[in-house]
Specification:
- The complex is a heterodimer.
- Chain A is mainly α.
- Chain A is about 70% helix and about 0% strand.
- Chain A has helices at about 1-25, 35-40, 45-75, 95-100, 110-145, 150-160, 165-175, 180-190, 205-215, 215-225, 230-240, 245-270, 275-280, 290-295, 305-325, 330-335.
- Chain B has 9 helices and 20 strands.
- Chain B is globular, with a radius of gyration of 24 Å.
- Classes of the chains: A mainly alpha, B alpha+beta.
- Chains A and B meet through helix 11 and helix 12 of A and strand 6 and helix 3 of B.
Chain lengths: ~325, ~350
């Protein structure tokens, strides 16, 4: 298949250009509508560039690699010599493995991996909730309360720490929460504990690291949503008898729902798929599902198995997000606004 | 229980800016009271202080005799209609109207009943399930008023609620607002920079300028007997002519102006030698015909502007320009530009006030 890909792509590209040229010839700016008008307005060169780059991006960057992965996930893990041979047939065994474990194993289900999978989803939900709880007040303050000078300062304070790269940040957190780290030193100095607390094993470091890593992805959609709320509506709600928390529950939050949804989706998806933070900050007994995927690809050398695992994670995450959006009555169009 | 609003020595400062200066006022129970003034005169600040969004720097606000200090907007017997209405866009019209009842824990059925009642009152029966965005400007306006009335406030505060409407609708809504106020019988405090609104709707008007209350009175009092040059020049059209008081007689003052000696009522106890301004309304100036006037001004025509009911003559003097408004009875002669004419007025139609700040200049 690889050998034909390049000529095929060039052929499709050439065909597209010809189609565009024909449409261009037959259109005019005054009478045409839709596509013809688009071509006339932008000129043939710019139009071709726009359309081909869009298709190229969609196809080569998004669809094609994922198709390869789907293909992988239904393949057998064969040595290179046997690829294309009689044994190279499609199979669902990689997916079955996640559910039922190795054939002839002791247990009827692959509880080890399924539990890790479930725990990853739940942990990602927890991280999302933590981020929402932290970011909502900050975003509200930035959007409705802060003066413009204060707002710039705050945005800078939020952005600057993210110049530090992920690995460095994760290790810094490890030191912070380690048995001889700053947290424990302070707690012991205050006399709150006489033994160092094992923050790593208790996953405190992991949750803190992940929540911190995706803070901005929550704050900015929230800020955008709350910023567009007319301040008079907040005052009107107060005037009509709302206490401060009711103002938020009745007026601000419903208005900011698309922002909340889009922030939560991003944080949840990225938490589910995080690798570095769980690797560095996770306790010895807490494996993240992405780590298992990584092991299949890397140390296990079993790409088909890894691809199947990764796909299940992706699908379940999408279904989960859709279900939650349905529950809170948010439409997909609102999120991307 | 009475629900008069008393402002006592009310002062409001924002840093160095003294927005409201020493206001003393008693707005009576059930009164339609307007604050009239140009933007930045402090009228909205007073309204926000009464509704609880900002606190007085000095002085007291009492509603029904009770000091309101320390009560938040949600605890006061007031409801505010915002300039941009601030309807909740995601709630239906009925939900908007009954929002305050929901907050107070009223059952859904009762809320709906109250909303329907209010929808009837504002002539929007059966439109409760629409979204505010599906209504016209005037309808949204009425929904905002109904929403504020749903709490059954003792005082309804309105912050220039008609300013976004077009002229015809605005005139219609004036009548509508007055009707609603008379129906519910509560105190309305109305903020506006539009003197037409204030004059047509209000029981009494307070004219404000630079945080100072210039005059309080009925529409007629404010219009016919302005207390300061600001009021005279802000409320309605007025010609102003400067001069010095030369003679006092039976409540009239004669002043020496660039148009010669002119006489008007002396309501502010001016003394001989005081700097003064004489105000005469354009419609009180008449062309010289048979009638002998006490005051005569000779000047030149600059322009003649037709406006339907009236025709306006713009006259230029040596130092002052004047406007004469003539009722269009079909017999107004056409004047040539530069023609010398005489106009006159009766002394009782003019008022002489101490020289001071004017509204426009």
């Amino acid at each position: 298949m690889n050998n034909y890909l390049l000529p095929l792509a060039s052929l499709i590209g050439a065909a597209l250009v010809i189609v565009l040229l024909v449409v261009y010839q037959r259109s005019s700016l005054a009478t045409s509508t839709g596509f013809g008008r688009f071509l006339r307005r932008n000129g043939i060169v710019v139009s071709c560039y726009l359309i081909l780059s869009l298709i190229g991006w969609l196809f080569f960057m998004i669809i094609l690699p994922q198709l390869y992965m789907v293909d992988f996930s239904f393949s057998q893990n064969l040595p290179p010599s046997k690829i294309g041979g009689p044994e190279d047939v499609y199979t669902t065994q990689n997916y079955e493995y996640l559910l039922f474990g190795p054939q002839g194993g002791e247990e009827s289900f692959n509880w080890l991996h399924l539990k890790i999978f479930l725990r990853t989803i739940i942990a990602a939900v927890v991280v999302t909730i933590i981020d929402l709880a932290i970011c909502y007040p900050v975003a509200y303050y930035m959007a409705q309360v802060a003066s413009s000078g204060r707002l710039r300062l705050l945005a800078l304070c939020l952005l600057l720490p993210f110049w530090v790269n992920e690995i460095l940040r994760a290790f810094a957190f490890r030191i912070l929460f380690g048995s001889g780290g700053v947290m424990n030193s302070v707690l012991m100095w205050l006399g709150l504990t006489d033994q160092p607390v094992d923050f790593i094993r208790a996953d405190v470091a992991l949750y803190s690291g992940l929540s911190y890593a995706y803070l901005l992805l929550m704050i900015f959609p929230l800020y955008n949503a709350i910023e567009s709320l007319d301040h008079n509506q907040i005052e009107a709600a107060k005037d009509l008898g709302c206490s401060w928390w009711r103002v938020h529950f009745e007026v601000v939050m419903p208005f900011a729902k698309p922002g909340i949804a889009s922030g939560s989706t991003m944080v949840f998806m990225l938490s589910c798929g995080a690798l570095a933070a769980p690797q560095i900050l996770g306790g010895p007994s807490s494996l993240w599902f992405t780590q298992i995927i990584y092991q299949w690809f890397n140390t296990g050398g079993n790409w088909p198995q890894g691809a199947a695992y990764a796909f299940v994670l992706l699908l379940v995450c999408i279904i989960f997000v859709m279900a939650v959006m349905k529950l809170f009555k948010v439409s997909f169009g609102e999120i991307v606004k | 229980m009475s629900s008069n609003v008393e402002l006592e020595n009310l002062n409001i400062r924002f840093g160095d800016f003294h927005a409201v200066k020493n206001i003393n006022l008693n707005i009576r129970d059930g009164e339609f009271f307007s604050f009239l003034g140009p933007s930045g005169c402090g009228k909205t600040t007073i309204l926000r202080a009464v509704s609880g969004f900002n606190d007085p720097s000095d002085g007291q606000i009492r509603i029904g005799g009770e000091d309101m200090l320390g009560y938040g907007p949600n605890e006061r017997p007031t409801a505010l209609v915002f300039q941009n209405l601030a309807l909740f866009p995601l709630m239906s019209v009925a939900e908007n109207i009954s929002f305050s009842l929901k907050v107070r824990g009223v059952s859904k059925a009762q809320r709906r009943k109250k909303a329907d009642e209010l929808l009837d009152m504002i002539a929007l029966s059966g439109q409760g399930d629409k979204l505010p965005s599906e209504l016209s400007g005037g309808q949204r306006q009425r929904v905002a008023i109904a929403r504020a009335l749903a709490v059954e406030p003792k005082v309804l505060l309105l912050d220039e609620p008609l300013s976004a409407l077009d002229l015809k609708l605005r005139e219609h809504m004036r009548v509508e607002l007055r009707r609603i106020q008379q129906k519910v019988g509560i105190t309305f405090i109305y903020i506006t920079h539009d003197q037409g609104e204030a004059l047509t709707m209000s029981d009494r008007i307070a004219v404000m300028s630079h945080g100072v209350m210039q005059q309080v009175g009925t529409a007629q009092e404010v219009y016919d007997n302005p207390a300061t040059p600001f009021v005279a020049s802000f409320v309605g059209e007025n010609n102003s002519i400067y001069g010095t008081v030369t003679r006092l007689e039976n409540g009239y003052a004669q002043i020496k102006t660039c148009f010669g000696e002119l006489t008007g009522r002396n309501e502010q106890n001016l003394a001989v030698g005081d700097f003064a301004t004489l105000f005469i309304r354009p419609q009180n100036l008449s062309l010289m015909a048979d009638e002998p006037f006490e005051n005569i001004i000779e000047t030149r025509v600059n322009d003649q502007v037709f406006e339907g009911e009236f025709e306006h003559l713009h006259l230029v003097g040596d130092r002052r320009n004047l406007v004469v408004s003539l009722v269009n009875d079909g017999n107004i002669p056409a004047f040539e530009k530069g023609a010398l004419i005489s106009v006159g007025f009766k002394s009782e139609c003019a008022v002489v006030l101490p020289a001071g700040d004017m509204a426009y200049e």
